[in-house]
C-alpha cells in the first residue's frame, strides 16, 4: 500500500551504476548528497562534473508529497495536464486545515464541517489520478512520510518547506512550489541549482536533558536563518550514528529554518531499526545491500574540509538544552541563568502560559515518550502544571501506539489537551484568543520549528520559544521560562522541594507500532470514472480553464503598475487571510499586486486606470482592462518575484490578463513560473530604461513574431504626449519554453502532446 519496494530497488540499481561513474568524472570521493543527486539526474548517467552553486540541473525525483493547503492549486493545475495518472508516486495529506481548540474528537468534527469541500475535492482528485490520500486526522505530512515513504538514498519533493524532514531517513527531500510539483506529476523534469554542501560533524553523544532538537537549535545559532541558503547540510560522525532516526528527522526538519535546500544523514543502524519498526523490513534489506552508496565515501568524513564548502563541528557531549527565540529560531539561549538574565534585559515575560508539543518537527513516538517521562515525574512527585500543555501527535500510528502504551494517559492526568494529529497551533490553527490582535503579552514554549510573531496564535505579543519536547514539558510544569531542570527545585503540593530526574524514553515502541485506521485511502486502479466535484458557487475552489495563448501580437498594451523596489511573491499575491482562497483563482486574484508599491505615488494598491483616468486598486483596474480586451504590462525593479515560490504570483496576473512582466532582474523561480504560465518575463537590456516608463504609457511589441532563444525583443513605448522610446528587452526562454508561450502555458502544451 504505502510504498513500492520495486521502485526503491530500481533507485538502488541506478545508484550502483551512476555513483561510480560520477566519482570518476568528479575525480574524487563523493559525499552522500552528491551520490543521491548524481543518481537522480533526469538525463540518466552522469556525463560531466556539476558545479556547486552554479549549474542548473534537471532531476528526476522518486516521490512527491503535498499538504492540503498547497495541494489545492497544484492539483487544480495537474488536472489541466490531460493525464490519467500522476507520473511519479504522489500523496496528499490533510493536516493544515484543522484547528486546535477543544481536543481531537471535537476539533476534527469541526474541521470536517468547515473544510469538507476542500477535503472532498482533494480526496476525489487523488482517487481519480492515482494519488495516495491521507484523511484529516491521519497525521502531519512529514511524520506520515517518514513512517511510510521516506527511504535512504531517495529523492523527494514536496509542496511544503518542511519536506526536508525526510532527510532523517537519508533522503534528499526538498520543499518546492506547486508549479514544480505539477511538472513532476505530469512527467517533466525538476530543475534545481546544484547546491553547495555544508558538512556538520557531530562528535560525542547526547545525554541527560540534551536532545536532537538542541543540535539543530545550536546549528541555527551558528549558521543563522540565512546560513544554509543554497546548500545541503550533511550530518556525519559518531554523534550522528548514535541518534535515533526520528531525532535525525527533527534536525533535518529545522534545516528549513536556516534556509538550507535540505539536510541529510547517511544510512545507519538507527534508520534500519526505524524501517523495520515501521513495517518496512524489505526496504531495510534492500538498503543494506547497497549500504556503501547510502553514505559518503570514507575519505570524505575523514577529511571533510576537502569535500564540503563549509564544515561545522559540534560535540554533543558538551551541548546543553537550549531555548531559541522569541520571534526568530536562531536566537539561542541556554536554560536557567542565561535565560533569566536575557529575559530581564529584554523584557520577555518570565511566566510561561502554554507548552505545546507536536508539529512535524517533534511529534514522534520517542518525542512523546520522553516528554511523558517528565509528565509522569510531575504526577509522582506531586507537582501541578503551572502552564497549560497541548499535544499534537504526529500521526494516527504514533497516537494509537502512544495511547496503547499509556503515554497519552500520563499527559491527560496532568490535564494536558490532546489535539488532533495535525499541524494545529504550528500553522496558527489554534483558537487561543477571540481577539488575538489585542491579546496580552505572554510567553509560550513549544517544540515546533517556527516562532515568528503571530505564527501560533495570531497574537503579536506572544513570545514563542522553541525547545525539545522534554524541556517544553518541564518548563510548562514549572511555569517559568528561566527554569533549569538540571539544577532548579520546584515546590510540590505538600510544600516539599522536588527536582526532576533526567528524561527517559523509548526510541521506538517496545511492543511495536500499532494502528487501527491509519487514515490512508488508496486511489482507484482506474480512476477514469471518478467524478471531481466543485460547486459552482464555491468560494474556496474553482476548476481552472486553460489559458488562451497571448499570441505574437501585443499592441496597445497599457501599463498596469510600475513597481518600486522590492516586489516579492508576497507583494504580488499576499498571504494571510487570502490563503483561504488559494484553490479559487478568481477570488484570490483580488489580492493581485495589492502589496506592490506604485513607483509614481509610492502607495500600495493605488494605480491610475488609463481608461478612466481615476486612481484605485490594482485588481480593479486590471479587471477593467481585461473587460475592455486590453492587454497590460507590469514593470518591476531588481530581483522581482523573490520569496516563496508560490505559483499564484504568476497565475493571478496571467488570469487577469497581464501579458508581460518587464523588470531589471528576476528571482529565477518566479521567472520560470511566469514562463510556465505562458507569459512574457523579460528584462531591460539597459536597466536605466526602467526610468523611461511613465504612468500613462502604452506598449507595442515590434518583433514578438520573431521570438527565438537568445534574441532580444524590441518594444515601442508610447508616452501620453505622443513621444516614443524604443526599448530593448532580453529574455532567457529556450525553445521548449517558447513553445509553452505559444501554447498558452506549459500544461497546455503537455495536454496537446498527450492528445
Ligand atoms: Fe505543519 Fe507546522 Fe510542519 S504547519 S507541516 S507542523 S511546520
From TrEMBL:
Belongs to the aconitase/IPM isomerase family. Residues 35-479 form the Aconitase/3-isopropylmalate dehydratase large subunit alpha/beta/alpha domain. It catalyses: citrate = D-threo-isocitrate. This is Aconitate hydratase A. It comes from Snuella lapsa. Its EC number is 4.2.1.3. It comes from the Bacteria. The keyword Lyase applies. NCBIfam families: aconitase_mito, PRK07229.1. Keywords: Iron, Iron-sulfur, Lyase, Metal-binding, Transit peptide, Tricarboxylic acid cycle. SUPFAM superfamilies: Aconitase iron-sulfur domain, LeuD/IlvD-like. Pathway: Carbohydrate metabolism; tricarboxylic acid cycle; isocitrate from oxaloacetate: step 2/2. Residues 558-687 form the Aconitase A/isopropylmalate dehydratase small subunit swivel domain. Its cofactor is [4Fe-4S] cluster.
Amino acid at each position: 500500500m504505502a510504498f513500492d519496494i520495486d521502485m526503491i530497488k530500481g533507485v538502488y540499481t541506478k545508484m550502483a551504476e551512476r555513483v561510480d561513474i560520477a566519482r570518476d568524472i568528479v575525480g574524487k570521493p563523493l559525499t552522500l548528497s552528491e551520490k543521491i543527486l548524481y543518481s537522480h539526474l533526469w538525463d540518466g548517467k552522469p556525463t560531466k562534473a556539476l558545479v556547486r552553486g552554479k549549474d542548473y540541473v534537471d532531476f528526476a525525483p522518486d516521490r512527491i508529497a503535498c499538504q492540503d493547503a498547497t495541494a489545492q492549486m497544484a492539483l487544480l493545475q495537474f488536472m489541466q495536464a490531460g493525464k490519467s495518472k500522476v507520473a511519479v508516486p504522489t500523496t496528499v495529506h490533510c493536516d493544515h486545515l484543522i484547528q486546535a481548540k477543544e481536543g481531537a474528537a471535537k476539533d476534527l468534527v469541526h474541521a470536517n464541517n468547515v473544510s469538507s469541500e476542500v477535503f472532498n475535492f482533494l480526496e476525489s482528485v487523488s482517487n481519480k489520478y492515482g494519488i495516495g490520500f491521507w484523511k484529516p486526522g491521519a497525521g502531519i505530512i512529514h511524520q506520515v512520510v517518514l513512517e511510510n515513504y521516506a527511504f535512504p538514498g531517495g529523492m523527494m519533493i514536496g509542496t511544503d518547506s518542511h519536506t526536508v524532514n525526510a532527510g532523517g531517513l537519508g533522503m534528499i527531500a526538498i520543499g518546492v512550489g506547486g508549479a514544480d510539483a505539477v511538472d513532476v506529476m505530469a512527467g517533466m523534469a525538476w530543475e534545481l541549482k546544484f547546491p553547495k554542501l555544508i558538512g556538520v560533524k557531530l562528535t560525542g553523544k547526547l545525554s541527560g536533558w540534551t536532545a536532537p532538537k538542541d543540535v539543530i537549535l545550536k546549528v541555527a545559532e551558528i549558521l543563522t536563518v540565512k546560513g544554509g541558503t543554497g546548500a545541503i547540510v550533511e550530518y556525519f560522525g559518531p554523534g550522528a550514528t548514535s541518534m535515533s532516526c526520528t531525532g535525525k528527522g527533527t534536525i533535518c526538519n529545522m534545516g528549513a529554518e536556516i534556509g538550507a535546500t535540505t539536510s541529510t544523514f547517511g544510512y545507519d543502524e538507527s534508520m534500519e531499526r526505524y524501517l523495520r519498526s515501521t513495517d518496512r523490513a524489505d526496504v531495510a534489506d534492500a538498503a543494506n545491500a547497497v549500504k556503501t552508496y547510502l553514505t559518503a565515501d570514507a575519505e570524505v568524513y575523514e577529511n571533510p574540509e576537502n569535500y564540503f564548502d563549509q564544515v561545522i563541528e559540534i560535540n554533543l557531549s558538551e551541548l546543553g538544552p537550549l531555548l531559541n527565540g522569541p520571534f526568530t529560531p536562531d536566537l539561542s539561549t541556554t536554560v536557567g541563568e542565561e535565560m533569566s538574565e536575557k529575559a530581564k534585559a529584554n523584557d520577555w515575560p518570565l511566566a510561561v502560559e502554554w507548552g505545546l508539543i507536536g508539529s512535524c518537527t517533534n511529534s514522534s513516538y520517542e518525542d512523546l515518550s520522553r516528554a511523558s517521562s517528565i509528565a509522569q515525574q510531575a504526577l509522582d512527585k506531586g507537582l501541578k502544571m503551572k502552564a497549560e500543555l497541548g499535544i499534537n501527535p504526529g500521526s494516527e500510528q504514533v497516537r494509537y501506539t502512544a495511547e496503547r502504551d499509556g503515554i497519552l494517559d500520563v499527559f491527560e492526568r496532568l490535564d494536558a489537551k490532546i489535539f488532533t494529529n495535525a499541524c494545529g497551533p504550528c500553522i496558527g490553527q489554534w483558537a487561543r484568543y477571540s481577539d488575538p490582535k489585542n491579546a496580552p503579552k505572554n510567553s509560550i514554549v513549544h517544540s515546533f520549528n517556527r516562532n515568528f510573531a503571530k505564527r501560533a496564535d495570531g497574537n503579536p505579543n506572544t513570545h514563542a520559544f522553541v525547545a525539545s519536547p522534554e524541556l517544553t514539558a518541564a518548563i510548562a510544569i514549572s511555569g517559568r521560562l528561566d527554569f533549569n531542570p538540571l539544577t532548579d527545585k520546584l515546590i510540590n503540593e505538600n510544600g516539599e522541594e522536588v527536582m526532576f530526574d533526567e528524561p527517559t524514553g523509548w526510541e521506538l515502541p517496545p511492543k511495536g507500532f500499532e494502528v487501527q485506521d491509519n487514515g490512508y485511502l488508496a486511489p482507484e486502479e482506474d480512476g477514469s470514472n471518478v467524478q471531481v466535484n466543485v460547486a459552482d458557487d464555491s468560494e474556496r475552489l474553482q476548476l481552472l480553464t486553460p489559458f488562451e495563448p497571448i499570441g505574437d501580437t501585443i499592441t496597445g498594451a497599457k501599463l498596469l503598475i510600475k513597481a518600486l523596489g522590492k516586489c516579492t511573491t508576497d507583494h504580488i499575491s499576499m498571504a494571510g487571510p487570502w490563503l483561504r482562497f488559494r484553490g479559487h483563482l478568481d477570488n484570490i486574484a483580488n489580492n493581485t499586486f495589492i502589496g506592490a508599491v506604485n513607483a509614481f505615488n509610492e502607495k500600495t494598491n493605488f494605480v491610475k486606470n488609463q481608461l478612466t483616468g481615476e486612481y484605485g486598486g490594482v485588481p480593479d483596474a486590471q479587471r477593467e482592462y481585461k473587460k475592455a480586451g486590453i492587454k497590460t504590462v507590469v514593470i518591476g525593479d531588481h530581483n522581482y518575484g523573490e520569496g516563496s515560490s508560490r505559483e499564484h504570483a504568476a497565475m493571478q496576473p496571467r488570469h487577469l490578463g497581464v501579458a508581460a512582466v518587464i523588470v531589471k532582474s528576476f528571482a529565477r523561480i518566479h521567472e520560470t513560473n511566469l514562463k510556465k504560465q505562458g507569459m512574457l518575463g523579460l528584462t531591460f537590456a539597459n536597466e536605466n530604461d526602467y526610468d523611461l516608463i511613465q504612468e500613462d504609457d502604452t506598449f507595442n511589441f515590434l518583433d514578438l513574431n520573431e521570438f527565438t532563444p537568445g534574441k532580444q525583443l524590441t518594444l515601442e513605448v508610447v508616452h501620453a504626449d505622443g513621444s516614443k522610446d524604443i526599448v530593448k528587452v532580453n529574455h532567457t526562454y529556450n525553445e521548449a519554453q517558447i513553445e509553452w508561450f505559444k501554447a498558452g502555458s506549459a500544461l497546455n502544451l503537455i495536454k496537446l502532446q498527450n492528445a
